[in-house]
Amino acid sequence: MTAPAEARRCTTCGRFRAYRDGDQHCIVCGSASLQAACDCGRPYDYVLGEPPQGALHCPRCGRDFRAAEADWTFR
Ligand SMILES: [Zn+2]
Ligand SMILES: [Zn+2]
Question: If you measure from the C-alpha of residue 19 to the centroid of ligand 2, how many angstroms do you get, rounded to a whole number?
């Protein structure tokens, strides 16, 4: 059994990816600046079920993640 993937967001490049326990560095840019939850405290678990294109907002605080990240791709 492997640990379930957890969505985290890199605060340097802004990209969401699936990570596992112990992961510390962004897959895309290598920065150790991963966040598992929004600034409001809402975990990013909902991100993994979302399509790679289209709008994406925090369901709790309404933050627009796409606005700051025009070329967002999840996979
Ligand atoms: Zn990054
Ligand atoms: Zn939020």
Answer: 19
